[in-house]
Design goal:
mainly beta; OB fold (Dihydrolipoamide Acetyltransferase, E2P); five-stranded antiparallel β-sheet; three-stranded antiparallel β-sheet; 1 helix; 38% strand; binds zinc ion
Length: 138
């Protein structure tokens, strides 16, 4: 089984990313969404790249996603972050093409496959809640 590493490099929280990094406090995966064309997008930007509207902001996404790609890191890059662990790109069920880079947890590495349904879980570190993903219970 993979488990959360003991150490992480934490993200820099900006006004635009604060909702994303702190949504886990209330169990919410908060992703930017355009209020004009209703498309989701990530990472957050001050305007919608589709329709150029500035009426954008975080909304609560489903937290469900699908593994689009992954790699197993085998190299001990950081003390306290021992390999192996899975770095994955997941595509949100809310909208095709909206992807997050994350870690997969609560899953044996040999069981990870592209197309696997996953759901968000949060790891609280200091002032941020890191969105990680685990397999959806069958
Ligand atoms: Zn838009």
């Amino acid at each position: 089984m993979t488990s959360p590493p003991a150490f992480r490099l934490l993200p820099e929280v900006t006004p635009e990313t604060e909702a994303f990094w702190t949504g886990g406090e209330t169990g919410e995966l908060r992703i930017y969404r355009c209020r004009s064309c209703r498309h989701w997008f990530h990472p957050p930007t001050p305007a919608c790249f589709r329709c150029r509207s500035r009426e954008v902001g975080p909304e609560v996404a489903s937290g469900r996603a699908t593994v689009a790609a992954y790699t197993v890191n085998q190299h001990p890059w950081f003390d306290g972050f021992p390999p192996p662990y899975v770095v994955a790109i997941v595509e949100l069920d809310d909208e095709p093409g909206v992807r997050l880079t994350t870690n997969l947890v609560d899953c044996a590495i040999e069981d990870v496959v592209v197309g696997m349904p996953v759901e968000v879980v949060f790891e609280h570190r200091d002032d941020v809640w890191l969105p990680l993903f685990r397999p959806v219970a069958a």
